[in-house]
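2024-03-11 09:14:02 INFO worker-7 job=invfold-0412 stage=load source=structure_tokens
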């Protein structure tokens, strides 16, 4: 019986690199690869816009539709890459709603994965302070081993 490996994917180059590395260096044909995309909550903080008018439900529906299209596009790209680099591996896909930091850790625990693979955006100290680091959060809070794949430095 193989391992269950969770790979967090998003629309970034770092995510694609981490998935590619995983498929080339880590996966064998007995493993199950679970691709996870965490859809962040919509950034609608008020029922009114900047002019004081109510935010239309059609605007919210449009934003939700865009988020769904993005999730579908990321998953299609990721599953296509899996077939291209290792067509023997079993691939499952999951799209969850919520803060990616929390969603990734919760799914890893719920599925009892053997380990979690994710890319690193390579934020510097200032960016990390303002934006936070999903990989850093998961490395400290996931209940399984976490493998963070960094992009190679450009020469």
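2024-03-11 09:14:09 INFO worker-7 stage=emit residues=155
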């Amino acid at each position: 019986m193989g391992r269950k490996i969770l790979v967090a994917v998003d629309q970034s180059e770092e995510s694609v690199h981490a998935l590619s590395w995983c498929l080339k260096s880590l996966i064998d044909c007995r493993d199950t690869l679970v691709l996870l995309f965490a859809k962040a909550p919509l950034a609608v903080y008020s029922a009114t816009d900047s002019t004081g008018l109510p935010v239309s439900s059609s605007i919210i529906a449009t934003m939700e539709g865009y988020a769904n299209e993005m999730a579908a596009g990321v998953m299609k790209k990721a599953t296509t890459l899996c077939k291209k680099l290792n067509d023997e591996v079993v691939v499952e896909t999951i799209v969850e709603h919520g803060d990616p930091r929390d969603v990734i850790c919760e799914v890893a625990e719920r599925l009892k994965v053997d380990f979690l693979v994710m890319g690193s955006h390579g934020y510097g100290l200032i960016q990390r302070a303002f934006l936070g680091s999903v990989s850093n959060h998961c490395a400290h809070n996931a209940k399984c081993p976490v493998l963070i794949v960094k992009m190679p430095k450009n020469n």
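2024-03-11 09:14:09 INFO worker-7 stage=report msg="Residues 57-85 form the longest helix (29 residues)."
2024-03-11 09:14:10 INFO worker-7 job finished
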